[in-house]
Every structure is written in C-alpha cells, then in structure tokens.
Amino acid sequence: MAKHKKTPQRLDPKRARQLIAKIEKVCSGTITTRMKVCGKPECRCATDPDARHGPYYEWTRREGKRLLHSVVSAAEANDLQTAIANYRKVQQLMKEWEAHSVELIRSTHPQSPRRNHH
Questions:
Q1: What is the DSSP letter of 16?
Q2: How many CA atoms lie within 13 A of 31 on its CB side?
Q3: CA 22, 24, 26 angle in degrees (round to 5)?
Q4: How many angstroms separate the CA atoms of 91 and 12, rounded?
Q5: 3-class secondary structure, 54
Q6: Residue 108's pLDDT band (boundaries 50, 70, 90)?
Q7: How high is the pLDDT of residue 100?
C-alpha cells in the first residue's frame, strides 16, 4: 500500500491577522546566558567553574548589516525571549499566509503558464 504524505493545513488569512494583532512585542535575535571569569587570580572563579560570576544575559541581533551584542538585565532577557518567540511566530504565520495567497492567486488564474524563475 502506498504511503500518502499528509498535506499541512493552511492557516486562514483572517485567523493569521487575528493572531498577529494580539502580539504586542516582536524582536529578532537570540538570548545567550553566560557565566564569566573575572580575571583576578585570587578569585574563586579562576579555579572553580561553579564559582564563575553571573549569569549575564547577552542579546545578539542584526541591525542592517551589523551584528550587535548587548548585555541586558534578567528582566530584559525574559521580555526579549518572549518577543523573540513572537517574532518567530509572526514569521511562520506570514509564511503560511503567503502560501495561501499563492494558492488563491493561482486558482484565480488557472490558464497562466507556470514558470519558476531562479
């Protein structure tokens, strides 16, 4: 018996707009948590990895062509994690919305020649 791939269900554009409208904060990038060694030879962090200083939170993102790094507070890191997850969700919703739009346009113009330009 042949296996059939299950086609993913497309999101209704109206639902995508509703979901996007509920999102307050969006940010791109990543949050990294770091523990650091201070560099003082007499400090415990120099010999004991469990005694390192931190955690320190670093937000890395692109602005234009530049890659930026910022040290942020724990509270900011928490908010940024939520905003980053929201950003990724919006990207996914937009991708699904775009796919729906392409299907709709193609079904409206069935006689059009199909050409893929690279």
A1: H
A2: 19
A3: 115
A4: 15
A5: strand
A6: confident
A7: 86
